[in-house]
Design goal:
3 domains; four-stranded mixed beta sheet
Length: 346
Amino acid sequence: MRLFGRKSDSTDPAEAIAAFWSWWDQARPQIDSCVEAEDPGALAELIGPAVTALHPSLVWEIAPGRMALNALVVSAANDPELRPLAPRWALAAPPAAAMWEFYPSRQANPRAADLTVEFGGREFGLDRLVVALRVPPGTARVNVTAYHPIFPDVDDDTRMEATLHALDWLLGEDEVARWIGEIVPAESEPIDALPAIHLPAVVADVAEGFKEEQWVLLEGRTATGGRLTAAARYPLRPVDFPLFDQHIAVTLPYAQADGDGQPTGASLDALRDFEERLTTRLAAHGSAVLTAYLSADGSRVLHVYADPAAAVPPVVEKIAGEWKEGRARVDVAEDPSWSAVAHFLT
């Protein structure tokens, strides 16, 4: 059986993923025996080094499966730089079977209300967790203040750890990333608290208002004081596009601009036509998305994110090559945290 050690940061993720699943195939009999023997220590010794070899910051756990008996979860734990690695690991997994299924994030537990675990040496049962919820007007987030009877007796880190685990059990890790905003573990019970088991219904109500694609228009100033206008998908969240970690920036100079450097007349029409053709091609390709665009000082920059395995840059370059109001530029970079559009993330 292959022995795993810590790999360098330069290791090809695809090679590391392939090595993991090769190891998994060899180690399955021993892993299954440890599960049947209910030996978590032996499982940690087996699986821990293999996950660390993928990346030292990944976390893992074995949970009850949805269809299979067990689920192996390997998660980036909200690390934006690691965001695409866990989904790629899960895509390369063997098909789910009676014994095992695989997930790149914690899944909601349908029996969450019955769970009792230990945090800070105290029993933490979700049946005693209550939450106060706030949905700021016009936002796509639910702010959560959580309270449990053990919270006055444990430290801040333990309170937060318990709250985050509870949210994952109630909603699933990805839904927490999508819909939960500020999280405050409280030492005293909020006066308007309700049982935490009602949180999924509140989140579902908020999500109902964002089923259709929406865009928000924004205005600001450049570093030199010029007027800047922008449009972005709303809500804009990397969790919705877990494999899209390649940033493609398209810069288009335009000929007709007003006194603030904003496009006008035929140039504005040309930009709208370009955006329509680009989004149509990206939709047909299925492996990229236009996330935002900004106009200032006589040029517009469009921000596309794509799956690097899908060869999207040549598609974008072909469309950009048809721009007639100046030389279009296409820049491609790795950006798993979506730092280029950080101001628009919601």
